[in-house]
Design goal:
Blueprint lengths: L16 H4 L8 H21 L10 H12 L3 H14 L2 H15 L15 H38 L4 E6 L2 E7 H20 L4 E2 L9 H6 L5 H11 L3 E2 L10 H29 L3 E3 L18 H24 L9 H6 L2 H19 L2 E3 L1 H9 L6 H13 L8 H9 L6 H9 L5 H9 L9 H4 L1 H4 L3
Parallel strand pairs: 3-4
Antiparallel strand pairs: 1-2, 5-6
Helix pairs in contact: 2-3, 2-5, 2-6, 4-5, 6-7, 6-13, 7-10, 10-11, 11-13, 15-16
Length: about 475
C-alpha cells in the first residue's frame, strides 16, 4: 500500500481548520517568527532613535522600509527563516540573521551590529510570545467568547418570563424561568471575561540572567533599567524588572487558568443544554440535508454541544498543564518552556472550536413551551415549599396553631405526586388566615417563580 501524501496530525489543522484558522495568524511558528522580527527591528530602531553607541536616527524612508519587513512578512520570509534555521539549529539566531540580511539589502550595514544588541534569545522570545498571545486573545478568542455571551444574553432576556420546573439533584424542585437560568451562566462568564481582559502581558529585556550585565559593560553611563522599561512599554506590554534569563510566565499561568475556568463554565452550559434537549425543554431545529444517525433517521443529535464539551475538556487539559509547568524553570533557565509554549495555539484552538460549536448550537434550538408547561402541571408537589413557608409566617404572626409545618408538608408531598385539587383541598383545611389561604389557593407551579424574571436585569448592565 503506497503511503498517503503528507497529512495534518492535529484535527485543528485538518477537519476543523476553518473554525480556528484566525489563530494561526498569531500562534503559529510563522506568527511567532514575524513577532520576533518585529521585536528585533523595533529594538534596533529604538537604539538608533536614542543615538546609542554613536548611532543616529534613520531616515524616515528607511524606517518605513524596515517596518515594512514586518508588515509585508509572507511566505518567502517564512521559508528563508526556515532555511537559516536549518543551518543555525537555533530559531532566534535564524531570525537575527534574517534581519541582518534585510539591513544589508537596505545598505544599513553600519547599524547591523545593533541587531540583537545585548539580548539573550529570551529577551526576544518573551516579548514575541506576549505580543502574539495578547493579539490572539484580544483579537480572536475574546470576540468569539463575547459572541457566545451575547447570544446567551439575548436568549436569557427572550425567555426571562418562561416558567420552568427546576431540577435539583435531578428531582423536581422550586420552579424558575429558562431566562433566569441562562442569565446565571451569562453572569458567571462576564466575571471571568473581566478577569481575562485585566490580564497584564509582561515582558522582560535584561539580558542573559536578568542583570543587564552586558549592557552595563557596553555603556556604564546609560540607565539600562529605564531603557528596558521604555522599550517594553513601547510595545504595549508591562515591564517586569525582576527575572532570571526568562520572564517568569506568571502572567501566562494567570491567563490560562482564567480561560480554563471560562471553558469549564461553558462545559457546564453544554451539559445543561444537552439535558434540556434530552427532556424536551429545547427542541432542535433540523439542518437541511444533515444526517442525525446513520441508522435512525428520526434523530437530531445535539452534536454541537457534545463536540464543544470534548474540545473544552481538551483545551482545559492543555491550559492547566501550561499554567502548572510554565511557572517552574530550573535555576536561571531551562528549555522546558520552549516546547510547552508552542502548544498555546493548540490549547486556545480547541477552546475557539468549542465556542464556534456552542454559538452554532444555540442558534439551532428552540424553547418547547408545551413541554415546560406540561412538566410544571405534573408536579404540584413543588408548592410544598411555598405552603410550609407561609404557614411558618402565619404561626409567627399568631394566626396559626400548627406545630410542625415542615413535617406536615413532608407527609403530604415527599416521594409522591399530588394534583391541584388535592393541594387546594389540603390548603383549605389548614389553620391559617384567610388572606394567606387565598394566596396559596391561587398559586400554581408556573406562577411560583419568585423574582426569576427580575433577576435577569442584572445581566443587562453587563452587556
Amino acid at each position: 500500500m503506497p503511503p498517503l501524501p503528507p497529512q495534518p496530525i492535529s484535527p485543528l489543522d485538518g477537519r476543523y481548520r476553518p473554525a480556528v484558522t484566525e489563530l494561526g495568524e498569531f500562534l503559529s511558528e510563522a506568527g511567532l517568527n514575524r513577532a520576533r522580527v518585529r521585536v528585533e527591528i523595533d529594538w534596533l530602531l529604538f537604539l538608533t532613535e536614542h543615538r546609542m553607541f554613536g548611532s543616529t536616527p534613520l531616515e524616515p524612508q528607511l524606517v518605513t522600509e524596515l517596518r515594512a519587513v514586518v508588515d509585508d512578512f509572507g511566505q518567502a520570509d517564512i521559508d528563508r527563516i526556515a532555511e537559516l534555521e536549518a543551518t543555525t539549529r537555533h530559531d532566534v539566531k535564524a531570525v537575527e540573521y534574517f534581519v541582518r540580511e534585510k539591513l544589508a539589502a537596505l545598505d544599513l550595514n553600519d547599524v547591523a551590529e545593533l541587531t540583537h544588541f545585548g539580548c539573550t534569545s529570551e529577551d526576544i522570545n518573551n516579548l514575541s510570545y506576549a505580543l502574539t498571545i495578547r493579539d490572539a486573545v484580544e483579537g480572536v478568542w475574546l470576540p468569539a467568547f463575547e459572541r457566545v455571551i451575547a447570544e446567551l444574553r439575548r436568549q436569557a432576556v427572550l425567555y426571562r418570563d418562561e416558567p420552568m420546573l427546576a431540577h435539583t439533584h435531578g428531582q423536581p424542585a422550586t420552579p424558575t424561568t429558562m431566562g433566569k437560568e441562562l442569565a446565571v451562566t451569562v453572569h458567571r462568564l462576564e466575571r471571568v471575561k473581566a478577569q481575562i481582559e485585566d490580564t497584564e502581558f509582561l515582558g522582560k529585556f535584561s539580558g542573559a540572567t536578568g542583570t543587564f550585565a552586558a549592557d552595563l559593560v557596553a555603556d556604564p553611563s546609560a540607565d539600562w533599567q529605564r531603557i528596558s522599561r521604555e522599550f517594553v512599554t513601547s510595545l504595549g506590554l508591562v515591564w517586569n524588572p525582576l527575572t532570571t534569563q526568562i520572564e517568569s510566565h506568571d502572567w501566562q499561568a494567570e491567563l490560562y487558568n482564567r480561560i480554563s475556568h471560562a471553558n469549564r463554565i461553558l462545559h457546564n452550559l453544554c451539559t445543561d443544554v444537552w439535558t434540556y434537549i434530552s427532556i424536551g425543554y429545547f427542541t432542535q431545529i433540523p439542518v437541511a440535508g444533515a444526517t442525525g444517525s446513520s441508522t435512525m433517521p428520526h434523530k437530531v443529535n445535539p452534536i454541537r454541544f457534545e463536540n464543544a464539551e470534548a474540545n473544552l475538556e481538551l483545551s482545559s487539559a492543555l491550559l492547566d498543564s501550561l499554567a502548572a509547568t510554565l511557572v517552574t524553570s530550573r535555576l536561571q533557565r531551562d528549555l522546558t518552556d520552549s516546547t510547552t509554549q508552542r502548544n498555546i495555539g493548540v490549547a486556545l484552538g480547541h477552546s475557539l472550536l468549542a465556542l464556534d460549536n456552542i454559538l452554532g448550537g444555540l442558534g439551532q434550538i428552540s424553547l418547547n413551551r408545551d413541554a415546560l408547561a406540561r412538566d410544571l402541571d405534573e408536579n404540584w408537589e413543588v408548592l410544598g415549599e411555598a405552603i410550609q413557608t407561609v404557614v411558618r409566617a402565619e404561626i409567627t404572626e399568631g394566626r396559626s396553631q400548627i406545630s410542625d409545618p415542615y413535617a406536615l408538608l413532608k407527609e403530604l408531598t415527599r416521594g409522591r405526586r399530588i394534583g391541584q385539587a388535592e393541594l387546594v383541598a389540603f390548603v383549605e383545611g389548614l389553620d391559617i388566615g384567610a388572606e394567606a389561604k387565598a394566596r396559596l389557593v391561587a398559586l400554581t407551579p408556573a406562577g411560583y417563580t419568585g423574582l426569576a424574571s427580575a433577576l435577569v436585569d442584572h445581566i443587562l448592565d453587563q452587556g
